[in-house]
Design goal:
This protein is of the alpha/beta class. The protein folds into two domains: 2-67; 74-344, Rossmann fold (3-Layer(aba) Sandwich). The chain has helices spanning 2-7, 10-67, 89-103, 121-133, 169-182, 201-207, 220-225, 237-250, 260-270, 272-275, 278-284, 301-308, 311-332; strands at residues 78-81, 106-109, 140-143, 161-166, 251-256, 335-338, 341-344. The strands form two sheets. Strands 2-3-1-4-5 form a five-stranded parallel β-sheet. Helix 6 crosses helix 12 (301-308), helix 8 (237-250) runs parallel beside helix 13 and helix 9 (260-270) packs antiparallel against helix 11 (278-284). The longest helix has 58 residues, at 10-67. The chain is extended.
């Protein structure tokens, strides 16, 4: 190469160097393409191997189910929706009722005396026994105004899947306040407990009434905290922390009323056995937005500011913000927006390097 530099004019040397650089670039590019092709081939072989394994497992599973009626599987799945009052829970539950026939699962309403969310110890045992052993009702979707119940304490091997929806605490309280006085469009003829009381929420706050007191905000925390005495002590920091712990450790998904459609979409993606068709039904179905509180008037800024001075509101709002942040985190990794519409992400993992080879 040194001899060539002596013999060749400078222009030809430059051209030779450029030609060499282009050749090297082309060669590297071809090598990279070969590497990419090899990677694609390896992934295709891995996916083919996974399909073969899945097919064998499916055939083995079918034989096992045919030989043993006690085999566990999707038919044994139970979902519990311990719904918080006035969080659009009826609207969501109606979707489950509309889908249960087509998707082949049972829906059961947990109706407690006087809507008491805390069960006696004997009823806890009965309920756990029913949920886990009532095979004729499986797969099942249970719903009711019941606080969280830890099935692990009862020695259950396969716990149910918990889901829930929560709402901005002041908006929830305002909705409940007017619901007790005027009902809703779901059962308009039903007489409510406070029927005849025409006092607005703002008037109640100004007068320091008990129905709009900050203590009435204390509901979503104890519903998630559960069947412990401390959960129902208004303003308990321990209850707040326990509610947060249960939300992230015991619940598959917790949505918010303000973004209910996204909650429905993610449930359909995660649990299609139950919620296949739920998103379309929510958008177009007659029952999806059925229940609306009558005569509800939004509170003034003054009423809101007065409630927000309370430490109870601060705790309930902290829990709501915690749930909202977790929900948005889950959503960011589950769906994408395109042209104003949300789309569920396709499977983003696969298996490779499966050994031993058959």
């Amino acid at each position: 190469m040194g001899l060539l530099r002596v013999m060749m004019p400078p222009k030809l040397q430059l051209l030779a160097l450029l030609a060499f650089a282009v050749a090297m670039f082309f060669l590297e590019n071809q090598i990279q393409k070969l590497e990419e092709s090899r990677g694609k081939l390896e992934r295709a072989i891995a996916r083919h191997e996974v399909r073969e394994i899945e097919q064998r497992h499916a055939q083995d599973g079918l034989r096992e189910r045919e030989s043993s009626s006690a085999a566990d599987g999707d038919d044994d799945l139970v979902i519990i929706y311990n719904r918080v009052p006035k969080t659009a829970s009826t609207s969501f539950t109606n979707i489950a009722y509309d889908l249960c026939g087509k998707n082949h699962f049972h829906v059961l309403h947990i109706n407690t005396t006087k809507n008491n969310p805390v069960m006696s110890i004997q009823d806890q045992v009965r309920f756990v026994k029913n949920v886990t052993e009532w095979k004729e009702m499986k797969p099942a979707f249970y719903h009711g105004h019941v606080s969280f119940l830890d099935f692990a304490k009862f020695g259950v091997k396969r716990k149910p899947i918990y889901i829930n929806v929560i709402r901005d605490p002041i908006e929830r309280l305002v909705s409940y306040y007017y619901f007790l006085r005027f009902g809703d469009d779901y059962r308009p003829g039903l007489r409510r407990r406070k029927q005849g009381d025409k006092k607005t929420f703002d008037e109640c706050v100004a007068a320091g009434g008990s129905d709009c007191a900050p203590e009435k905000l204390w509901l979503q925390i104890p519903f998630f905290c559960g069947h412990y005495s401390e959960c129902w002590i208004v303003g308990s920091q321990w209850a707040l922390e326990q509610a947060k712990y249960n939300l992230v450790n015991e619940y598959l998904l917790v949505g918010v009323t303000e973004e209910l459609e996204d909650f429905v979409m993610m449930l359909e993606a995660a649990l299609p056995q139950f919620f296949r068709g739920a998103t379309e039904l929510y958008k177009t179905g007659k029952k999806s937005h059925l229940r609306k509180t009558s005569e509800k008037k939004p509170p003034t800024k003054e009423s809101i500011a007065k409630l927000q001075q309370s430490s109870i509101w601060k705790m309930e709002n902290e829990f709501y913000e915690f749930a909202l942040e977790q929900f948005q985190f889950v959503r960011a990794h589950a769906v994408r927006e395109k042209d104003g519409e949300l789309y569920v992400l396709a499977q983003n993992f696969f298996y490779e390097k499966i050994y031993p080879k058959n």
